[in-house]
Amino acid sequence: xxxxxxxxxxxxxxxxxxxxxxxxxxxxxxxxxxxxxxxxxxxxxxxxxxxxxxxxxxxxxxxxxxxxxxxxxxxxxxxxxxxxxxxxxxxxxxxxxxxxxxxxxxxxxxxxxxxxxxxxxxxxxxxxxxxxxxxxxxxxxxxxxxxxxxxxxxxxxxx
Length: 159
Description:
The chain is mainly α. The protein has helices spanning about 1-20, 20-35, 45-50, 50-55, 60-70, 75-110, 115-125, 130-155. It is elongated and about 60 Å long.
């Protein structure tokens, strides 16, 4: 998939989509495409997890990780799930962002066949978003409330 990213869209389009830290992601994705690996450490993903995903506008991935994090409320298993998600996002974050980039560019190309409009939409839909961090923060609160409610119900309504 990362091979196709550069073959189908070219480095200039990928850079236009990524915007901030494009050098980092382009070099990581090229190396991953060359080696065929999906694993590549991302310190921002490790430190900020789902908030990094929100910053990069990967809302679906954020929601999936948050939904899985509800399992954190299970005794013993919860700790293992939390660690797996934390390290998993850090190890697969670059791949997930590359996949998201590719899928978004494919969708934009289908929706906007005119080259000039496509280029404008790449810039608009790509990049980063502080608003995305806020959205994910609100999602995290909602998922935490669901997890807490499940924990209380598992204890028979006792705190």
